[in-house]
């Protein structure tokens, strides 16, 4: 064991030093979409984690695309300046590559932050806004009805994705992931649960994937050819009556591959309160394995992968190419150091902390006699 987790991999022009990725995780700590000192601390600690890549949380491409008023955005110059400060910090002190997840929450936007309840904001609350979606049906019975997007709105949002992608590259991100999972806007188009349209964007599989593919293509066409661009999607709605399942997700992935998609990050669920998720250790890895083996581009497995041996065996058995860790990394930001220890491998340590590591404790201390 220990053959894969600490081996390098490339995604288009990006060389990654190992197979461990920090999953994107909303922090609900932005102000008007702009990153704050919390992001400096949060991403600051993760960028010295020794993982190969850290994804910044779902970052809204327009103000209305934020899940909560505390969500991060990259739709204004102010947002760009604030996030550039964080990325500059990460680049100065960190040892990981840094990715952004571009997102639009669609009908699941305008909600309260989780520790205040996470429920839809009251439309009378001045912090709330009218949500948008493929169709005018709310996420759940007590959720507000979104505005059904017309063709002009669709063009506008597509452009917002392109603009945010360009801003991301300008401020130094190494890779972009498009958030097409968890019941947010793009997933809302993919799934018949949320997409009830009768025009060219709804009903048949080909129509439901049309707008997501248009967004992908618009970005791919506008960013440098060597810049890596990938997608996180939900491999299934976990709703028996929905056709959005691993079969449709696989067909969709094949189309994305044809259009120049560089990696998949395979998640699941989030689009219906009726979902019946069978969760447990590594519970989404079977989906990643199908995508990796049928589509054949670098694939990230995610979801309750908490132990180094579990991660290693997923890679060794050819089920995925990389492992993303979310909560495990919040709980123990030194996860990678400990995993390296288990497999007797090397990973990056910031020089400031080098003396915490047994192989490096002999570093000289200014003024002390040289270690023997
Ligand atoms: C606090 C928190 C915030 C999250 N925010 C995002 C997000 O912004 N985008 C996303 O795609 N997934 C998000 N997720 C899901 C994680 O990226 C990950 O897929 C999920 O937690 C399962 O992995 P884990 O078991 O290693 O935590 C979030 C999860 C947590 C715990």
Description:
The chain is an alpha/beta fold and 372 residues long. The chain has one domain (9-356): TIM Barrel (Alpha-Beta Barrel), CATH 3.20.20. Helix content is 31%, strand content 14%. The protein has 11 helices and 12 strands. Helix 9 (308-316) links the parallel strand 11 (299-302) and strand 12 (322-325). Helix 7 (246-258) crosses helix 8. The radius of gyration is 21 Å and the shape is globular. The two termini are 35 Å apart. The model has no long low-confidence stretch (mean pLDDT 96). The structure holds flavin mononucleotide (FMN). Flavin mononucleotide is lined by residues 23-26, 57-58, 101, 179, 181-182, 232, 267, 302-305, 325-328.
What's the SSE blueprint?
Layout: E1 9-11, E2 14-16, E3 20-22, H1 37-46, E4 53-60, H2 77-93, E5 97-103, E6 132-133, E7 147-148, H3 151-170, E8 175-180, H4 185-190, H5 205-208, H6 210-222, E9 229-234, H7 246-258, E10 264-267, H8 285-295, E11 299-302, H9 308-316, E12 322-325, H10 327-331, H11 335-342
Parallel strand pairs: 3-4, 3-12, 4-5, 5-8, 6-7, 8-9, 9-10, 10-11, 11-12
Antiparallel strand pairs: 1-2
Helix pairs in contact: 1-2, 3-6, 7-8
Flavin mononucleotide binds next to β4 and α10.
Q: How many individual helices?
A: 11
User: What is the CA–CA distance across the termini?
Assistant: 35 Å
User: What is the level 1 CATH name?
Assistant: Alpha Beta
* Architecture per CATH nomenclature, i.e. the level-2 architecture: Alpha-Beta Barrel
Rg calculated over all Cα atoms: 21 Å
| Beta strands, count | 12
Question: H/E order of the elements?
Answer: EEEHEHEEEHEHHHEHEHEHEHH
Strand content: 5-15%
Query: What's the CATH superfamily, by name?
Result: Aldolase class I
Derived structural class: alpha/beta
- The main sheet orders its strands as 3-4-5-8-9-10-11-12
Indicate how many domains the architecture comprises. 1
Largest sheet: 8 strands, parallel, barrel
Share of helical residues: 25-40%
Poorly predicted segments: none
Mean pLDDT: 96
The CATH topology is TIM Barrel
What global shape is seen?
globular
Q: What ions, cofactors and ligands are bound?
A: flavin mononucleotide
